[in-house]
Amino acid sequence: MVNIQTDTVVPDHIVWSLFNTLFFNTCCLGFVAFAYSVKSRVRKMVGDVIGAQSYASTAKCLNIWAVVLGIIMTIGLIVLLVLVLPGVIQTVMHNRGF
């Protein structure tokens, strides 16, 4: 007798989505990914494996975009502060006569 296990493991990426919601919520992508992760978990609990995989795939894609855009925006902000802030400070000091 052969037992076939029909229970498929579907990652719902809920921890990753929560992290992105708290730290890399660029354009609310982290929050939307969290919503899709919750939907994936609900579908998995109901027994709809195909629906759970679909929602999990969307959550994964949104999480990837949230991380990429969050890193780009963080690097851009650091570069902007390093390049612009010294010029602004110099202009303010020059205008005040220091």
Automatic annotation (TrEMBL):
Where it mainly occurs, coarsely classed, is membrane
Which InterPro entries does this chain map to?
CD225/Dispanin_fam, IFITM_antiviral_protein
Keywords, alphabetical: Membrane, Transmembrane, Transmembrane helix
Q: Give the subcellular location.
A: Membrane
Transmembrane stretches, by residue range?
14-36, 64-89
Its cellular-component GO annotations read:
plasma membrane
Q: GO annotations under biological process?
A: defense response to virus; host-mediated suppression of symbiont invasion; negative regulation of viral genome replication; response to interferon-alpha; response to interferon-beta; response to type II interferon; type I interferon-mediated signaling pathway
Q: What Pfam families does the entry give?
A: CD225
User: Is Membrane set as a keyword in this record?
Assistant: yes
Organism of derivation:
Myotis myotis
Family to which this protein belongs: Belongs to the CD225/Dispanin family.
Q: What is this protein called?
A: Interferon induced transmembrane protein 1
